[in-house]
Design goal:
Helix content: 10-25%
Number of helices: 3
Strand content: 25-35%
CATH topology: Alpha-Beta Plaits
Number of domains: 1
CATH architecture: 2-Layer Sandwich
Radius of gyration: 16 Å
Length: 113
């Protein structure tokens, strides 16, 4: 089964994450700049929390892998992004029903590898 890993992370970690994920066998990913907030409403540690919500800059990394790769990818991301501070990020794992490579019409795992 295929899985989609969606991560919301600190932008400063992107280059290291990309390099290390390629080393563990990831052959593709999508990255976008996003803004968001979590339980702390966008305020960082030590800041006074106001009623207004602050959007913080993040990157969203999306990777589709065979379920056998999920743990390796997540461990790599956690190792590189763990800061023990507020705002380090989140990882979500979602099922993917299927994938199709448009150019060749390959489906399933062969469409992503």
């Amino acid at each position: 089964m295929l899985k989609k890993i969606e991560c919301f992370l600190n932008p400063s970690r992107l280059d290291r994450i990309k390099d290390e994920l390629v080393k563990v066998g990831i052959e593709g990913m999508s990255v976008g700049e996003v803004k968001g907030f979590g339980r702390q409403r966008g305020y960082l540690e030590g800041e006074k929390i106001n009623k207004a919500v602050k959007f913080l800059p993040k990157i969203k990394v999306e990777i589709v892998v065979d379920e056998g790769m999920v743990e390796k990818v997540i461990d790599t991301i956690k190792e590189l992004c763990a800061t023990k501070t507020i705002g380090a990020g989140k990882i979500f794992i979602l099922p993917v029903e299927d994938a199709v490579r448009i150019r060749t019409a390959e489906v399933g795992k062969s469409a992503i590898y």
